[in-house]
């Protein structure tokens, strides 16, 4: 655990006393307190340093120091010591560390001291205000120096001619709030003025006593004087962007400059540490033709307490904005609105909020977007129209606000107003050379032109396709320019943002292609959009991508595949997403979903349904569409339930007649003879061949020959063909009337594999039971090999394998699922591919129940568990017959399968 020694604390205290001019009656008790905390050594004169965690030192100070001023000075000392020890040990100060340190420093600076210490602020030549916290000098040179730096949003950024400078000591900065950019340079001496970009200036400091090159903690001014040495600078790195809780360092003698927007607030905790590097001469670079420049340190009446309060307010503001943005990324709009409204309240209610206009605009932009995403168009419109009216023409914010307002107009069906807003967005972005804003604007223009086209072939639709294609192309260029290996979190954030823009562009392109009758292009574009959305944290964006892909599939005649997109197993559905942002356009899509049979009663991750959002947004027309869909859905549900009950009754009749009348006598008469299962298969096949109705409800017994299974090299599926022929891979057990040449190749022994599906398939393709490494297939091979070793009498040449993905028709699964009890009964052995989740799976559990019942009743069937192991090799062991299975607690990928599983559970009693 991180701790601080008492000796380190004592050293830092000396520097804090110097920096704050703390009087002896405040500082002396702290020295005595630290000594009293140290354990005794061999004598009373030999105290031994102790180690305590920062919070333990703070608690000890609260108990051991009686005067409030001394307690606060001790807390500053502890805070500085935390940064010192982290840096000395090359450990990153965490966000929690920085919050703790800042809390200690802030409380001390803002505390109304009665006797001291006396914090002071001075203005740096680089434009920031500095508050010394700890100053340790050695022979007039910096040994260790800790300061609180703040750039105010007052436009004062120092003399721009002297921004490139170097430091004597190694420097490190921890960002408290705001954004700064750091640039680093090399400097090469040159002989002529024409070659030079800068001259070298020597730096000196003055206090109330004298001026010299000796560093002074409490300065009245600093002066730089041209040395006549010329050189040329070259940018070597930057801009390197730094934000709250980040840290960066500058080696001694390295030339650099820090850039902070003139209307923004930025604050850091800054340290100079000569122990990590020091040079005596660390010049400033300036104009070639100037002689000198002096910077007065007067802070113009700004107090350290006011600075600390401003930084603390801005840290709270930033955290609220970050919370709101995180909620927005997860489509948690209510929580986002709450956070943004709190941030707005700070701007409006805190006296002397720094540059409230700038930061209020940022909040208003987020509130406009969030209200729009929540379907509150009037509120969003009012917020953005008012903000735009107060902005200067050509201001950077106009680009974002115009685009957002255009989207709102589009949802309000004010298409011409939307087009004008998007054109302003595009033209302003072009003037500002803002590639990102241009990308968004051209996509917005494409969408509004698509709507204005009336989805009719013509110039507007062609223009929409051209603009949306440009949107996709330009955002791909933006993504390609990013450094995805960078540790800067903003790079990852931008990558995710650009991916969402690309997904939206592709989804919108699919609409245009559909309108132009190019179904294949529409499906391909929408499919790419869904793939991009798969890793998004924005559930609404995912749902909208599913909408456009499902719509393309629907118009291509793939109704069932479309319904899979419209009705995902959990989370936000396309219907819910459309109701979040109601508009005439969205109502059109919603009506299409109703006709297609999409689920209008699904619940999203926030616990809301489509109807909830429609009612919340007060959009009666959208509410009526949802209600219409619910009525149809409920009517279909009643009809389906009646039909399901009828189907279940006929299935029960089939089970009784097939199992009790046909199969049970064979099993009861077997007397433990496992060859009886071959007779059982013949009886079952004959029964289906003789009854057309049963043959439509129950699938025939199928298997894959083991030799074919080996040669395929993966888990087979129901549509696979035999290698080198057009014949089906999956074999059917023939009835007595089907006397043909295939009888000689009939499997005599069949193993049923029970296993979970492994996630790993694309969301736009049919589910696969295996992963890309063929894990389940390899386990099946290993289990079969072990089984054959345990049972050498089983001939691999006449061995068959039953696998659900192959032996149940994946395009028409009902007959295969209905036949599961009879299928398990006709297999000689069932092998469970057990893993951590196997017995939580409802389908696996119902198969285990079947084999347990058969094994207990007839002693013909075998059941094994296959247990994987990384160290000792996979194991095949007999299944636990005393294992209790409760199906109602088991998990399903699709909850709609539960009635089928529970129905099969009720039929298992027939097997006994």
General description of the model:
- With 912 residues, the protein is an alpha+beta fold.
- The chain is 50% helix and 16% strand.
- It is built from 30 helices and 24 strands.
- Strands 9, 10, 11, 12, 14, 16 and 17 form a 7-stranded antiparallel beta sheet that branches. Strands 19-18-21-20-22-23-24 form a 7-stranded mixed beta sheet, with helices on both faces. It has a 6-stranded antiparallel beta sheet with strand order 5-6-7-15-8-13.
Rg estimate, integer Å: 38 Å
Q: List the uncertain runs.
A: 760-766
Number of strand segments: 24
Structural class: alpha+beta
How is the main sheet built?
7 strands, antiparallel
Percentage of residues assigned to helices: 40-55%
The end-to-end distance, rounded to whole angstroms, is: 63 Å
The number of distinct helices, counting runs of at least 4 residues, comes to 30
* Structural shape: elongated
State which percent range the strand residues make up.
Answer: 15-25%
The overall pLDDT average reads 88
Distinctive features:
50% helix; 16% strand; 7-stranded mixed beta sheet; 912 residues; elongated; single chain; alpha+beta; 7-stranded antiparallel beta sheet; 24 strands
Outline:
The chain contains 30 helices and 24 strands. By secondary structure, it is of the alpha+beta class.
Task: Describe the SSE topology.
Layout: E1 4-5, H1 6-20, H2 24-37, E2 39-40, E3 47-48, E4 51-52, H3 54-64, H4 68-88, H5 95-110, E5 122-123, E6 129-138, E7 141-151, E8 169-177, E9 180-189, E10 198-206, E11 211-212, E12 221-242, E13 247-250, E14 255-259, E15 266-278, E16 284-286, E17 292-296, H6 304-329, H7 333-349, H8 356-373, H9 377-389, H10 396-411, H11 415-431, H12 435-452, H13 459-480, H14 489-515, H15 519-533, H16 539-555, H17 559-566, H18 574-580, H19 584-596, H20 610-616, H21 620-668, H22 676-690, H23 692-697, E18 702-705, H24 706-712, E19 731-732, E20 749-754, H25 775-790, E21 799-802, H26 804-807, H27 814-818, H28 820-826, E22 829-833, H29 842-858, E23 862-867, E24 875-878, H30 898-907
Parallel strand pairs: 20-21, 20-22, 22-23
Antiparallel strand pairs: 1-4, 2-3, 5-6, 6-7, 7-15, 8-13, 8-15, 9-12, 9-14, 10-11, 10-12, 10-16, 12-17, 18-19, 18-21, 23-24
